[in-house]
Amino acid sequence: xxxxxxxxxxxxxxxxxxxxDEAFQDDPVSSWVFPGExxxxxxxxxxxxxxxxxxxxxxxxxxxxxxxxxxxxxxVPADEQTAAEEDVPAQIREAxxxxxxxxxxxxxxxxxxxxxxxxxxxLWMIGVVPGRQGEGLGTALVxxxxxRCDSEGLPAYLEASSARGKVLYExxxxxFTGRALDLPDGPRMWPMWREPRTR
Length: 199
Description:
Layout: E1 5-7, H1 13-23, H2 28-33, H3 37-58, E2 60-64, E3 69-76, H4 88-96, H5 101-113, E4 120-128, H6 137-152, E5 156-160, H7 163-171, E6 175-176, E7 181-182, E8 188-194
Parallel strand pairs: 4-5
Antiparallel strand pairs: 1-2, 2-3, 3-4, 5-8, 6-8, 7-8
């Protein structure tokens, strides 16, 4: 039996935020942004809410019908330009955790390595609740969008936040761009690009 996937609506926001918060509590990058388990449990959900809100506004959130996994996708045009007066990383920090410079830094660093010049689909985040990981839910979520990318001739991009994730994405056709992002005194992230496959 296949995984049933639907597009999440605004009424799914709280579920999506809870799911992402739970899925990323032990993620290496989340642990770097919010060091200390208690601090992370108190604060991390606010960053997940900011991410979810951004994608609900400008992209698409795919959700498994059972609510155990979701993927946040943003379409990125070839000429993506952020207005100079909009300092989005600083705005995120102010909204999420004003005293935590790493909230702003992670946004600046990932913006700095994001490919430009070609339209693509950006897999911002994908989360599976811990008790359901390893069941293929994440793969099903990604493959559903990659099928569309292939039919439309669109590449896809993501940053893997763990070595385990990098291996999964390689199986789905993503390739490491060759330039890792090493967070200061923190973990490594792997930018990955996937060219569309022709049928």
